[in-house]
Write a structure and sequence with these properties.
This protein is of the alpha/beta class. It has 2 domains: about 1-95 and about 285-305, 3-Layer(aba) Sandwich (Rossmann fold); about 100-280, Rossmann fold (3-Layer(aba) Sandwich). The chain has helices at about 10-20, 30-40, 55-60, 80-85, 100-115, 115-125, 155-165, 190-195, 215-220, 240-250, 270, 285-305, and strands spanning about 1-5, 20-25, 45, 70, 90, 145-150, 170-175, 185, 200-205, 230, 255, 275-280. The strands form 2 sheets. The protein has a 7-stranded parallel sheet with strand order 8-7-6-9-10-11-12, sandwiched between helices. It has a 5-stranded parallel sheet with strand order 2-1-3-4-5, sandwiched between helices. Strand 6, helix 7 (about 155-165) and strand 7 form a beta-alpha-beta unit. Helix 1 packs parallel to helix 12 (about 285-305), helix 2 packs across helix 3 (about 55-60) and helix 5 crosses helix 7 (about 155-165). The radius of gyration is 21 Å and the shape is elongated. The structure holds (2R)-2,3-dihydroxypropanoic acid (DGY). (2R)-2,3-dihydroxypropanoic acid binds near residues 49, 73, 74 and 284.
Length: about 325
């Protein structure tokens, strides 16, 4: 069975894959055209973020040779799952194993933005720090404030737990259904309610057509002037230009971003902002988590190859 792994993954997982399959290892994200060719050339593909398995890619592939896309990542908005299903291609993902790592990055951003850690670090590195000052680089207190979670899935709940247990925060959330996160969290009726009430807004919804530009100029305008906005889901969920406008005007105090609309492109205007902490999509980037993600993606492909239904099937 021919397996394409589109990007290097943890060596022990790669070794297992090579022991079972005829593996080709890619290095860079697949364009739509490359994704389409891959669908006609391999029995199974282990793709990840940035590989363009769009409806057009499936269309161009006709009747694909590929039977399974064992995605590396919980998010799979780079794969048109409906087009995959129509072409008879099973899609799986890697939930759970990255929940804690991603929630930790959410908190890295909350704390770094609140305490102006990026600005401080740049000052020190530039050799421009003039010493301790009672009024210098004052940030925002986090403990006891209101944490607003947009999307109370596994990652949202993990962010909320850290806020409640670690920082004594009042947690509110906006989600289609009510969730029991095992802590006193209050569901609000509208996104606007959340934006108005929260001191810290953290976005953890899945990417996709339903959530594209969910956070628009109106939503941002509803935030408190001292509010801090954090996105650890997908860049497309936020109107990036509206966010930049709000940050430039000082309409909100700051932001922390791990994801961007057109990764790896990060707009110049965003990079110029002092009140925004920018990370390069590090949500799941720990050695342990990335190995577990690779293992789960491969296990799904192995299950499928052995005639079993893969556990993390999404279509
Ligand atoms: C995911 O799994 O969707 C992440 O964004 C990649 O770390």
């Amino acid at each position: 069975m021919k397996l394409l792994i589109t990007r290097p993954i943890a060596q022990p997982v790669l070794d297992q894959a090579r022991a079972r399959f005829d593996v080709t290892l890619g290095e860079a994200p697949l364009s739509e055209e490359e994704a389409s060719s891959a669908l006609t050339a391999y029995d199974a593909i282990l793709p990840t973020l940035g590989d363009a398995f769009t409806a057009a890619a499936f269309d161009r592939a006709g009747t694909p040779r590929t039977r399974i896309l064992g995605n590396f990542g919980v998010g799979y908005n780079h794969i048109d799952v409906a087009a995959a299903a129509a072409a008879g291609v099973v899609v799986t993902n890697t939930p759970d194993v990255l929940t804690d790592a991603t929630a930790d990055i959410g908190w890295t951003l909350i704390l770094a933005a609140a305490r102006r850690a990026g600005e401080g670090e740049r000052l020190v590195r530039a050799g421009q720090w003039g010493g301790f000052g009672p009024q210098s680089l004052l940030g925002t207190h986090v403990t006891g404030k209101v944490l607003g979670v947009v999307g109370m899935g596994r990652i949202g709940q993990a962010v909320a737990r850290r806020g409640h247990h670690g920082f004594g925060m009042d947690v509110i959330y906006f989600n289609r259904s009510e969730k029991d996160a095992g802590l006193p969290a209050r569901q609000v009726d509208t996104l606007r309610d959340l934006m108005v009430q929260a001191d810290f807004v953290v976005v953890t919804v899945p990417g996709g057509a339903r959530t594209t530009k969910l956070i628009d100029a109106d939503a941002l305008a509803a935030m408190k002037p001292g509010g801090i906005f954090v996105n650890i889901s997908r860049g497309e969920v936020v109107d990036e230009v509206a966010l930049i406008d709000a940050l430039e005007r000082g309409a909100i105090a700051g932001a922390g971003l791990d994801v961007y609309e057109a990764e790896p492109h990060v707009p110049e205007r965003l990079r110029a902002l002092e009140n925004c902490v920018l990370l390069p999509h590090l949500g799941s980037a720990t050695v342990e988590t990335r190995q577990a993600m690779g293992q789960m993606a491969l296990d799904n492909i192995i299950s499928f190859a052995e005639g079993r239904d893969p556990r993390q099937r999404v279509n």
